[in-house]
Design a protein that fits this description.
12 helices; 35% helix; six-stranded parallel sheet; alpha/beta; Dihydrodipicolinate Reductase, domain 2; single chain; Rossmann fold; 2 domains
């Protein structure tokens, strides 16, 4: 028996929101996009034209509160700038809607607490857009993880070009900390989430060292950093970040993202879309490659997350990237930003006690 499509509204139809409609929601039979919203008229009109070209009806709004008051939809997909997440997510949850929210959860610990409270009261399905957990290469890492024995060390190297220019109500909001929460939150909550997931333990403390003197000297965000995270089970994780590296061109051997897992019995590495595993005892190596079909805005990784979300809405259950994953990645990010700013080790319990935002075990 065919189920009715999940009526969906998308709030925020800039580059990412537009891409998620074209490359994900329109390709999945579980969803029907019935409304779009963006206060920046050029984005809204461009998205409206995209629907008209395909002969698809869509209702358009410049204020998300008008959308919530008038639209009969089950799911709100929030792809708006980071500084709007708290207000929009809380309004949607209070309206009893299921929510898929792009990362990060919010740009302040207080904002995260508020969203968490609204979700507890709404009891709807919530998914955070930490799609790297759903990416085929990281799923392969989880599948092969047991080969490594006891995990001891994690590494992540993201060497990439600067942020793309942002146009909207606030141009280039992404390079202003008061609107993004800072680089280690906006960009690297993805990678801290992978650390938390693979380490499978609560982080104890974070030490970060970085500056923004190369690419972002005119702003107040970091453009390079090292971040170390220590976990209760003894796992140590290290992030290396650079936002002024050369762009990876086709055929280049450079990788913008690499991930490493070292255990008592072996070693595993993700390089782009290739995963390698080595056995410590005999040095045997195995290689796995993911043939990515769509390279635009993580579309291949977002699709399986949206498939899971549809199942949770229709059949019950909790998404892999639920509110716990959202809070946990944000907590490590907040600690990293504070550590880089104050040049000291920051303990997770400091933030928990100060803001009442608890790590979800």
């Amino acid at each position: 028996m065919n189920q009715k499509k999940i009526k969906t509204a998308v709030i925020g139809v800039g580059m990412m929101g537009n891409s998620q409609i074209r490359n994900c929601l329109w390709k999945l039979p579980q969803y029907e996009v019935v409304a779009i919203c963006d206060p920046y008229l050029p984005n809204l009109e461009a998205c409206r034209a995209m629907f008209e070209e395909r002969g698809l009806p869509v209702h358009c709004y410049t204020d998300h509160r008008d959308l919530l008051a008038r639209e009969d939809c089950e799911l709100i997909n929030i792809v708006s700038p980071d500084y709007t997440h708290e207000e929009i997510a809380c309004d949607c949850l209070k309206a009893g809607k299921h929510v898929r929210l792009e990362k990060p959860l919010a740009i302040t610990p207080e904002g995260c607490v508020r969203i968490l409270k609204c979700l507890e009261e709404s009891k709807t399905v919530f998914q955070i857009g930490l799609e790297l957990r759903y990416a085929a290469p990281t799923r392969k890492i989880r599948e092969w993880q047991q080969r490594l024995g006891e995990v001891k060390m994690l590494t992540c190297c993201e060497f990439r070009p600067p942020f793309l220019k942002k146009t909207g109500a606030i141009n280039d909001w992404i390079v202003q900390k008061r609107y993004s929460g800072g680089t280690l939150l906006e960009k690297n909550c993805h990678h801290f989430d992978l650390f938390n997931w693979i380490a499978d333990a609560k982080p104890v403390c974070v030490y970060a060292s970085g500056d923004g003197k190369t690419e972002y000297a005119h702003t107040d965000i970091l453009d390079s950093a090292f971040v170390t995270v220590e976990y209760e089970n003894g796992v140590r994780a290290m992030l290396s970040l650079c936002l002024f590296a050369p762009k990876k061109e086709q055929g280049s051997h450079l990788n913008e993202l690499e991930l490493g897992v070292l255990g008592s019995k072996g070693r595993m590495e993700l390089r782009g879309d290739d995963v390698y595993v080595w056995n410590r005892a005999d040095g045997a190596e195995e290689h796995w490659h993911y043939a990515r079909e769509n390279f635009e805005a993580h579309s291949d990784d977002i699709i399986p997350s949206m498939e899971e979300l549809a199942r949770c809405i229709r059949e019950g259950g909790t998404p892999l990237t639920d509110i716990g994953a959202a809070v946990n990645s944000a907590l490590v990010s907040f600690a990293a930003e504070l550590s880089a700013e104050e040049h000291r080790i920051v303990y997770i319990r400091e933030l928990e006690e100060k803001f009442g935002l608890r790590y979800h075990n």
